[in-house]
Write a structure and sequence with these properties.
- It is built from 6 helices and 2 strands, in the order αβααααβα.
- By secondary structure, the chain is mainly alpha-helical.
- It has a two-stranded parallel ribbon.
């Protein structure tokens, strides 16, 4: 009889602990992801808006990039058009170490006239 009461008590205690733990856990999980997408969307939108196009950027926009001064900016302009941003290194416009500083901030968008010049 005592064993049966003990088992019943333990079963009720375990159920109570699981109920309390899952309820608190569920609230934590629901609150966490709701905040994360808004933060992620905001942080992803900022870098995309700030990308500098290597094929159309002015000298001032290029100089604003980390590691790029007047000389590198002029070399980038003189080496246009670029099919890919990594051509800055392959065409020996900038060294790899300088390219690594700003590669996440630039793109090489193609205009129709630039593609026709390459053909």
């Amino acid at each position: 009889m005592k064993n049966r009461k003990l088992v019943s008590f333990l079963l009720v205690a375990v159920c109570a602990v699981m109920f309390v733990a899952t309820d608190g856990f569920a609230k934590t999980k629901k609150a966490g992801p709701a905040k994360t997408p808004a933060t992620t969307a905001a942080s992803n939108a900022a870098p995309k808006a700030a990308l500098v196009d290597l094929n159309t950027a002015s000298k001032a926009e290029l100089v604003a990039l980390p590691g790029v001064g007047d000389a590198y900016a002029q070399k980038i302009i003189d080496g246009r058009p670029y099919l890919r941003k990594d051509q800055l290194v392959s065409k020996n416009i900038v060294p790899q170490s300088t390219y690594d500083k700003f590669k996440a901030l630039v793109v090489a968008n193609q205009s129709k006239t630039a593609v026709k010049k390459q053909s």
